[in-house]
Batch of 3 targets.
Target 1
Amino acid sequence: VCKYGGKVLGGIVNGIVIAIFNAIYKKVATTLTKWENHRTMSSFETSLVIKSFLFQFVNSYVTLFYIAFFRPFIKIDHMGGFFQAQGCQPEECMTDLFIQLLSIFGTQLLLGNFKEVVLPYIMARIKMRLEEKKILKTGQTPQPLSRPEAESKLGVYPSTFDDYNELILQFGYVTFFAAACPIVSFFALLNNILEIRVDSIKLCRSLRRPEVGETDNIGAWRTILHVMNIAAVMVNCGIVLVTSDTFSDDPADYNYLSIPNRFLVFIVAEHALFLLKIILDLAIPDVPAAVEEERLRKDFKTRSFHKERVHTAEHERTLTEDQMEEFEDSDCYMSDEETAAAVTHPMLVDHYGIAK
């Protein structure tokens, strides 16, 4: 118990240190990106995402990669001192990897939820308390704040960067080391279900109303997810063939597999998984057919509505007042309400082949 308790405590401390250095480097990366003086906000965000992710990738996963791919090759029987303490047998390396992953992952989840909900609320209360003390020093009585005044004391929602960054790092913990700790994906699912409520509380109660921004996609995060998918396949194949005790190094064992044969199995396995990934990408569309059909139908309605309004406006400008009165009394004139009703008529929709 003491042996594993020490490893859990070490994982928790490691998770706290990772969170601290991630926060520090985010500020450094933001400052460096501002100095680059990007012309557009999209290029600024792309540069910031790349800088932050490269550092946080190393900072968040270096311990786990070390346990998985370096410790098994340290010969504990022939080295003393530091190296003797760092080496491990395959089954021990998998246990250490399991403990470290769960400890770091759990610590990151708790710190993230605390930073998103509890910390902004505490800071807002401290700010309001300090302002009340300033009013009391002047000899006045603090008046109850209205809702807009109270919301103005809340923190500002900076951007979606932190939300995406949290999910990307969580995605790495789940996919990179799934072979060593499959249960972490279950904990990630529970956290994401809880995250729905946490984000709603953060946006509705802990922070001010965020500013609305338009975007076509998630930007550089999509490329990062694609790269992490490819890397996760190779990492998990390496864990099974190198770190785990699935295959033995002793020729006398029944599960013996030489290093060249392991490399061959690694190439075949990761290529087969890549092929399966490509097949799934082609078989499952990014946008479901029903959603695409609904989007086309709404686009058709919008274009027809604006086209009819433009046609009616151009015709009205060519008429005199007497002709305009005669035109409005005729069956050819359509008001805005009639135009909107016409473009949604079932016969018109069926005529253009758009599903209802």
Target 2
Amino acid sequence: EKSSCDLMLFGPAIALLHSVPRAPRTPGAALTASILGLADVSYRSVLYDFSQPDQLEEWERIDDVIMGGVSSSRLVVDGSSALFEGRLRSDGGGFCGQRMRLLAEPLDLSAADGVFVDCEALSVGAEPSKRVWKMAIRTKQDRGEVVYQAAFKPPTGGRATVNLPFDAFRLVRGPRLVPGVPPLSAAQTNETYQISLVVSKFEVSETGAALPGFEEGLFAMRLHELGTFSTRPPPFSRSMPRALSEREQAKAAPPLLRLLRPLLGLVFGEPTRRRRAATRLLEARGSSRLQRARLGWAWRAAAGGPLVAARKTAALGLKDAG
């Protein structure tokens, strides 16, 4: 059930699928691009084939709502590929991401030279160069989240493969680069628990500064495959470990966080933050409190009838009073 703020802040991303070019049914030959000039790639191992709908279930969104933002994204099947699409908003955050669900066992990538993504940035919203596109590798399972990031430029005007050598990845804390730490090495990827794709307003830098000329709004990137590359034949074939279920991930959280999660979700949860952001937006447009209340009532009544609208309005009033 969606509130009026959901209509305002999440609705555009949901409808975005119908505004992008359709993917061709035959993948064809992928071009090869590299951020560091490594063109001689003889061996590739595909970890995720985004033409397979069941593989999308092993991914989850990681948008800026975790830090109070209101950006939104999703990963959906579109023909023989997947679309990573959504809307970037600067208010309270400024990034969207999709990541592998945390693996029950680590993935050993140490025999490879790096990771690749077969993709295409689409002409939706601002130019792709007005955003920062990143890939992240997580090498620790606990909540400490040892994460290495590398920025890349997705191809435009056609499908291509971008190769990211492991030594292009640097240790980060949030959006900031950790100074004085060596780049990621292949040996450190012998316990890889997650790979993420992120579009952001933040550059990979020690200051975590915003990209000059950053523009918020809609975005879309078509994904075909993600995996590893090497100039040497792999010594063994890999199979993907099982992804943890949501219940298993919740149980892995520290005891104090598990205890406080219901209260934190009530006070700082995504629906609450989005409703507050929608309220600020309406206030900035000059709407009165009575007008906002009428808008909310009309939306809730249309979705569930007067009784549902009354119940939800009363619940929201008690929450705001608290």
Target 3
Amino acid sequence: HLNLSQNGIGDEGIAALVSGLTAAANTSLETLNLSRNAFTIAGVRSLSTLIQSERSTLKDLSLHSMRIDDDGISILADALTNNTSLETLFLDLHGSTSAGSNIFSRLLCDTSSINNIYLSNHTLQTIGWSDQFIDEGKYFSLNRQGKQLNPINRRLVPMCKILIHHPDLADMKPFYKWKLKFIPVIADWFRSARGCKGFFEESIETFQRRQLSAMYRFIRGVPMLVADGYWSQQLKQVRVKKRQFEEVEKQLLEILEKKRKVEEEEMQVLDRLSGQRASL
């Protein structure tokens, strides 16, 4: 535990602190309190280096009464994307707007794609301070319960988030290249995701239908990909032949143009020869 609150620490002090902590051989620091200090967004940027560090063991970070704005929140969110240790971020949200809340919401679960959900943060359990907390209870609850269910393998949390927003894994185009070899992977994924049933009020039959729907979509999509690939290859070959004919056509036009000029020269010679004979 390290409590440095109300010490008037500025940007240079934060930079020096972060440099020392990231270089230290002892990386067991779990609680860091930097509340009520004087650093600005530059200090937040330095602090993000510590949060992103693979050696970071921080579980609780206090930055309340700092009035960090949306730009600062964006820096913190970027740093927290790959962080797997921080559970509590005490933060004064009075300096931010609804945009800042949206940034944290995307951090906890970026629903734009299956892959982005996997890349979201699955460790944070609390963001805020006093009477202001980020209202993302379902994601915080998933993160918290995921740790309790399996503190070592945290794969279950992103699986549950995926099943909330992509029930039958509709976005499977990136996996089509594996063709039918990917079917056992889908089956294994749903087998592992059975632990998520406690987060949903649905029957075993409904969950099984999710799996069958995902497999059906994948199997149906693979032939379309193969067909698209076949006809794309055919189109490519036809266009190659077309370019070859166009080149031959260009050469023929050049030959015809040369022939025309030779014929013009022939006519001019014949005219001169005819003129000379007439004068004799």
